[in-house]
Amino acid sequence: TVAVLHRTKSSGSEKLERLRSDLEDLEQEKTRLLDKDEDLRRERTEAATACHQRLSTSINCRIEQLEAVAARVMMEVGGAEDIEVVPVSASGGRDAALAVAWIQNALATAAQEPSPSLQSPKGLQDCVGSTNRIVNSSVSPALQAKMPVLLSKVAVLHMELRMLKQMSLAAKVMALIASPMQKKLLNLCHDWLDTFMPHCMVKVNRVSFGLLTDEECEAVLEEDPNVPRSRIKLAVPFLGKDVPSRSSEFAHPDVIIGVTILAYRYSGIRKQDFSDLIDAITTEFSHEVGPTSERPSCVRYDTWVETSGGRIRGKKPDSESEEGVASTVNVVEDDDDLSKELSLIHISEPTRLLSISYAVFCLKKKNAESDAVIV
Would you say the pTM of this structure is higher than 0.90? Predict the structure, then answer.
């Protein structure tokens, strides 16, 4: 009798095959859900685009109507009037509709009256009302009497035009930008351009804000070793010229960012900042893997040096960068016993070599007797 051997599967193998089958099913389900989600997103995008087109058409039509009414009023009064700026309000649409009806009625009433003679005793221009506005003498007396109210109605139309344009832009953003992060960035940019940047730009460096100098940082740390490091690295309020506040700081984070950037732009980075920067990039370099010249920290460091007009020892520059460096920086070949090191020059104005905001790095050579900057 010949014994027949049958290959049996272990419980672990059976479990592994079952798990692989479940994984394939889950991958297929994931692909199906992703496709469904993409189709749903595409449908919503198309629907939002169609709604945006209809809304844009309606808004543009309304803008044309209001601009036509405002232009007709300016033509009637001679176009020399200063229109008051009215803030946007929630009732702007209703007020604009009432203003259009009132203006049309006033113009229709004025058109039925005969125009005054151009040879008036007061000349071609008359001063109307206590507001001392100058109007054309060809305007009918009835319209001249309503001039203050007429101009206030035109101001309402201008307010509505501004609101409609803002609404059109907001609808365009909501319809064409799908990423929530991009919408947040747009809102942040608007806040910066409209609020934070003007607030920061009116401040004077080392008068209303500024960085603590190295001597001031040493004095603060000596007085209180537990001082917040934000006072050491970020801009702080100043009480007067070169008189920093002892303990106060800027409260709004965006304002802190803005004044700190301006402070480093005006004063340049300090020697301790440069040391911390080199320590940080050295630490990053030690944690990265790969060839030395291809590590991100090394590439960033080389970019700093080359952008400032220097050269890295042992690295052959490209032809384009070599021509740019040769035209701006004159580097003298040194002997073997001379060493090169990266040094920092504090600046407060853009350099003539390149537009570098905070500092200019250059190659400095030191010999045994004296130091010479080879720039």
Answer: no
